[in-house]
Design brief:
Chain lengths: 267, 281
């Protein structure tokens, strides 16, 4: 499945674009959510974030998106360029990197009168979608959806999409404009096996085509080895980071998931 | 107004004859301004699940009137508008800061506003009855200057819709996603709720406090039964509101009942029709 591996650098990250998290800590109403989280994310790399519920996965994403106050630093360095601080407004030494975000599938009511075209146009264009959407916008949305093989979804109501279709629409939106870093929050939950396979194939295509860093959270450990270059095991702190095989066979992984469940939910 | 009088005189009704029944002609024009206003706002009230909030706003508008009356203003409406704006702003702030569900926060605000209104209007043993007309409303009492004011408000709402509807819709669909695309979610919601506050307060005198919320809920709810995209949604909501507005006014004129209530009943009928026409499954 993997086509390129240029994200895997032997040492240093001077030659590739790189998102650096250093000593990241988040506190929320006195509770510690994240403690001293540090790792690098290179372009062309797919990194999976795993951890139990409440491990701070969403908070980590929200910090990168600049929606949550944090201590520590998050910087982005384009290949060979100077580092840029994210999410504090003070952009120096270059263009601020674009972060594409695919949220946990929002719940649409079946009866919501929002078509895929409405949703897409509302998020990417100035044209107010309570008026009939002009042909130009329609063609643009169709072109963006074509990136995820979803042109045929244009006139469907958002509420009528399957889990996999909804994820593809959200992915198409996150890719317009094409970001430097793509974040997906639990993209595989609520998606059937076929949809999951399609989605992973697509992510692999995208990172090859656009040289993106892809950062996603998942509970589906079985498929990790097929698509992830690196896995980060998080539970407030980074417990273990490395290639999928290494993390999934580590004592830390065992302790966080297996023993926990083996005791029938105690402790 | 002269233009309107001559336009109306083309209609084949007895009250439409030149030189007579000005109150009815005013009322018709007022309905033609108020009903699209509610038809438009209704789409997002229903979409962002704010029907309980707009109900609470109606109550706060009444309290504002009571405060205005106590302060001895000739036009307590303006005191009510200011009070409703503060109410909307404060509500959004508390909802943002608090961990409570939004319907709980609304309940707190709504009951406080109603209690304050009743307390103030009965202070010193005064009678509540002078506020009765606010509860039911009287569209026939509308004056040309007020219609002009409402027309300006309608224009402003259309402008707001043209500029920020997309962002408002995204905020309602998924706040975090909207934020990641640069939408200021808090301000979108606040400006929208303030728009509802102004519209509810200004039209309360003519529509009536007891039924005003139905005008904000029913057009959108009915349209939602059959609309499949935003354009259909707005069109159906708008057409439903205007048709029910005109039909309600005529009914109330010919058989003599509250226009606000008649309009609401027509809207309820429209809801039933779309409900039966809805695509099942």
């Amino acid at each position: 499945m993997r086509k390129i591996k240029h994200g895997k650098l032997a040492a240093g990250c001077a030659d590739a674009c790189c998102l650096k998290l250093e000593g990241l800590s988040v506190r929320l109403q006195g509770d510690s959510i994240l403690e001293d989280v540090s790792f690098h994310l290179h372009c062309g790399e797919i990194v999976a974030l795993i951890g139990p519920n409440g491990a701070g996965k969403s908070s980590l994403f929200r910090s990168i998106l600049g929606q949550m106050p944090y201590k520590g630093s998050i910087t982005f360095s384009p290949a060979g360029g100077p580092a840029i601080r994210l999410a504090d407004g003070a952009v120096t030494g270059g263009k601020r990197p674009l972060v594409g975000y695919v949220p946990q599938a929002p719940s649409f009511d079946r009866g919501d009168p929002v078509s895929v075209l409405d949703f897409f146009t509302a998020a990417t264009a100035k044209w107010p979608v309570w008026l009939p959407v002009p042909k130009k916008q329609r063609e643009r949305a169709a072109a963006c959806l074509a990136r995820v093989h979803g042109e045929d979804l244009l006139d469907k109501p958002m509420g009528a999409l399957s889990g996999g279709q909804l994820q593809r629409v959200l992915l198409a939106l996150a890719l317009e404009p094409v970001p430097h870093i793509l974040i997906l929050d639990e993209p595989l939950s609520g998606v059937d096996i076929e949809g999951e396979h399609q989605l992973l194939e697509m992510l692999d295509e995208l990172r090859t085509q656009y040289d993106l860093s892809i950062f996603l959270s998942t509970h589906d450990f079985a498929t990790l080895g097929q698509f992830a270059d690196k896995v980060i095991l998080l539970n407030k702190k980074v417990l273990r980071a490395g290639p999928p095989g290494e993390v999934l066979s580590s004592p830390e992984f065992y302790e966080t998931f297996h023993l926990h469940m083996g005791k029938g939910g105690e402790g | 107004m002269e233009l309107w009088y001559s336009l109306v005189s083309l209609l084949p009704f007895e009250w439409a004859q030149p030189g007579t029944m000005y109150f009815m002609k005013h009322a018709l024009l007022a309905v033609l301004v108020i009903s699209p206003l509610f038809g438009i706002l209704s789409t997002m009230v229903v979409h962002s699940r704010m029907s309980f909030f707009s109900d609470a706003l109606g109550h706060s508008a009444f309290t504002g009137m009571a405060i205005g009356a106590i302060c001895g203003f000739n036009e307590p409406t303006w005191a009510a508008v200011i009070f409703a704006l503060l109410f909307a702003l404060l509500f959004n702030l508390v909802r943002r800061r608090s961990a409570l569900a939004s319907d709980t926060v609304i309940g707190v605000f709504s009951s406080t506003a109603v209690a304050l209104g009743i307390f103030l209007s009965t202070l010193g043993g005064r009678s509540f009855t002078k506020f009765n007309n606010l509860l039911i409303g009287d569209i026939l009492s509308v004056e040309p200057a007020k219609i002009g004011l409402l027309a300006v408000i309608l224009l402003l709402v259309v402008l707001l819709w043209a500029v920020s509807f997309n962002q408002l819709m995204l905020s309602a669909v998924h706040p975090a996603l909207a934020d990641s695309r640069g939408v200021k979610v808090f301000w979108q919601e606040t400006v929208f709720s303030m728009a509802i506050a102004v519209v509810v307060t200004l039209s309360m005198t003519w529509v009536g406090l007891l039924v005003i919320n139905s005008l904000l809920v029913l057009p959108g709810a009915a349209a939602r039964n059959i609309a499949r995209n935003m354009w259909q949604y707005h069109l159906l909501s708008l057409v439903g509101a205007v048709a029910a507005g005109v039909a309600g006014l005529m009914t109330s004129y010919y058989i003599g009942a509250s226009a606000g209530a008649a309009i609401t009943l027509y809207l309820a009928g429209w809801f039933l029709v779309t409900f039966l026409l809805r695509k099942k499954g």
